[in-house]
Amino acid sequence: MAPQKETLLKFTSRRYKSPSVSEEAFHAFATSDHAPKAAPIQARHGFLGVRQSFKPTALRALLTEGPFAANKPPGWTVDDHDFEIVFYVRSMEQLGGLLGDPDFQQLMADEADICDQERAELSIGWEEVFVENGKVVNIEEGKSVYQGWNESVEKLAGKKEGSKN
Asked: Are strands 121-125 and 139-140 parallel, antiparallel or unpaired?
């Protein structure tokens, strides 16, 4: 049996730009100002990956108009956040270290006029990849190579599934 894949914490922050900031200016800030300053701090805290996704109005419209909208399953909504950043870490201590880092705190303060500070959303979980670069991956003999649910929750949350502590 092949070794199991390492399961990482995937921490996601979904953000809105400030209403007074254009989509283009927001992109320029995130890509040319914030990311080059944040990346060395994130690496210093052992982050394994950081990815930014931009969600401009023109692309969101592809989901609310035309063929997709006509066939969208009932009850599905389109996320309207402008931006998403995903961090991959091995532990919450790494994430806590970043958030407590004075250099990173200053970067967060510097974005106060760019990002809507009142409407951010956070999520945390893990990711399992089964198609990459057009190829099936992480499946051997018809089964996932990832560890099971309970093992993942216990490893990442530091407690057994269903326990209160």
From this structure: unpaired
